[in-house]
Amino acid sequence: MIPSHHYYLTAVALFLIGIFIMIASTHLIKIIIGLNITQIGVYLFLISISYVESANPPIIGFGEPYGNPLMHVVVLTAIVVGVALTALALALTIRLYDEFGTLDTREIEAAIAADEGSTKKKN
Fold first, then answer.
1. Which pLDDT band holds residue 122 (cuts at 50, 70, 90)?
2. How far apart are CA 89 and CA 36, in angstroms?
3. How many CB atoms lie within 10 A of CB 21?
4. Which of 45, 46, 25 has the alpha carbon at shortest distance from 34?
5. Are 58 and 69 in contact (CB under 8 A)?
6. Which residues contact 43 (CB under 8 A, 6 or more apart)?
7. What does pTM read for this prediction?
8. For residue 49, what pLDDT band results from cuts at 50, 70 and 90?
9. What are the backbone angles phi and psi of residue 104, rounded to the nearest 5°?
10. Closest Cα to residue 38, out of 16, 60, 55, 53?
11. Helix H segments across 1-123?
12. Domains of the chain: which residue ranges?
């Protein structure tokens, strides 16, 4: 069995790697991947803190100690929300690509700024 502190370290490492990818990348797909890696780190951390050594399932008749199922329910809910968030982000990314022809955030920002500049000159 792997000691529990290794799970904590892995969760923190995944979280930080995801944050780094989101900050360092200018490509929208890479930013979404970084967001997903960050979410996985949070899921692993939440499951790790709810682990009880030699725990029985939370069913009447198995006795104490038992694992608390609440954290597992929270993580399952978070996974569903994460999938919905990823689907929304990808849908918006497709829309941005259709509009600007690129997924680079710098080029998208430059196109928006150029469009706003030309709109102000007309007025």
1. low
2. 11
3. 19
4. 25
5. yes
6. 75, 78, 79
7. 0.84
8. confident
9. -85, 125
10. 16
11. 4-24, 28-49, 70-100, 105-122
12. 4-122
CATH number listed for the domain at residues 4-122: 1.10.287.3510
Length of the chain: 123
More confident residue, 114 or 3: 114
Q: Which candidate, 119, 100, 122, 123, places its Cα nearest to that of 111?
A: 100
* CA 40 – CA 16 distance, rounded (Å): 11
pLDDT in tens, 50-100: 877 777 777 777 777 777 788 889 999 999 999 999 999 999 999 999 999
Helix (H, G, I), strand (E, B) or coil at 52: coil
Instruction: Say how many C-beta atoms besides its own lie within 10 A of residue 52's C-beta.
Output: 11
